[in-house]
């Protein structure tokens, strides 16, 4: 709704964005999904220019220095990176709380702990799970290992977020008040940090606090062993999270 994509089109853009993030999708399928999504957003931007609303696409479409194609490109980035990451992280956080009822109960009684708990879940879940491919521009030593200029490296955020020198030994389960949890790298580091991290944090905090308050009896509707995961996607998450209350 903030972006300006009608909710009735949810299934369309979700299907297209998941194809784009699927590492196993044939190149032709990914290219078709990219054309479909950018074409849809360009058409939506044109419509927003005629019939603006209170949303991001309408504000972008009203600018004289952006073409519909450029608005679509910006919308594409916001939709794919913002929607898929937050949607998958939301489901994984809910599952983490369902698996840790003591922590969920504590957060229900002490909602002030939720910001730290969200940082801990961002650290421990690390949904950008496949690593970032990079090449060394010059020779550098990391952890006692010399990496030559031009050599390829994989930066594993999931490993970094479990660095015992930074976070200590992390016991199983969810600690809603883990000291230093915010030092995680789930949003990147330095100048390359995620631009939407503040919004993502607020969304997760509000969603989880509200869910715990309104649905105190929330539980899995299937055995945990029946859950399936998007291991083939760039963004890790659940394919479905059946719940009841």
Features:
7% strand, Cytochrome p450, 6 strands, 9 helices, globular, 49% helix, mainly alpha
Report on this structure.
With 245 residues, the chain is mainly alpha-helical. It has a domain at 1-98: Cytochrome p450, CATH 1.10.630.10. The protein contains nine helices and six strands. It has helices spanning 10-21, 27-50, 56-61, 68-98, 101-109, 114-125, 157-160, 164-167, 197-214, and strands at 132-135, 140-142, 145-147, 152-155, 219-220, 243-244. The strands form three sheets. Strands 1-4 form a two-stranded antiparallel ribbon. β2 and β3 form a beta hairpin. It starts with 9 loop residues before the first helix and ends with a strand.
Note the topology:
Layout: H1 10-21, H2 27-50, H3 56-61, H4 68-98, H5 101-109, H6 114-125, E1 132-135, E2 140-142, E3 145-147, E4 152-155, H7 157-160, H8 164-167, H9 197-214, E5 219-220, E6 243-244
Antiparallel strand pairs: 1-4, 2-3, 5-6
Helix pairs in contact: 1-2, 1-4, 2-4, 4-6, 4-9, 6-9
């Amino acid at each position: 709704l903030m972006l300006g994509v009608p909710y009735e089109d949810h299934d369309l853009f979700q299907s297209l964005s998941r194809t784009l993030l699927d590492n196993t999708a044939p190149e032709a399928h990914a290219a078709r999904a990219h054309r479909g999504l950018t074409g849809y957003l360009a058409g939506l931007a044109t419509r927003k220019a005629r019939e603006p609303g209170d949303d991001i696409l309408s504000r972008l479409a009203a600018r004289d220095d952006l073409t519909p194609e450029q608005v679509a490109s910006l919308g594409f980035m916001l939709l794919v990176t913002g929607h898929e990451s937050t949607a998958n992280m939301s489901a994984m956080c809910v599952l983490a709380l369902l698996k840790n009822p003591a922590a969920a109960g504590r957060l229900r009684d002490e909602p002030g702990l939720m910001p730290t708990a969200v940082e801990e879940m961002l650290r421990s879940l690390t949904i950008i799970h496949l690593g970032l491919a990079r090449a060394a521009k010059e020779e550098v030593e990391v952890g006692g290992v010399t990496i030559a200029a031009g050599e390829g490296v994989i930066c594993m955020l999931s490993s970094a977020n479990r660095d015992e020198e930074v976070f200590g030994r992390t016991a199983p389960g969810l600690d809603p008040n883990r000291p230093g949890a915010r030092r995680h790298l789930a949003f990147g580091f330095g100048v390359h940090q995620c631009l939407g991290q503040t919004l993502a944090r607020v969304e997760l905090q509000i969603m989880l606090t509200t869910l715990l308050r309104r649905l105190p009896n929330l539980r899995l509707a299937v055995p945990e062993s029946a859950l399936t995961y998007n291991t083939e996607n760039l963004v890790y998450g659940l394919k479905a999270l059946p719940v009841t209350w």
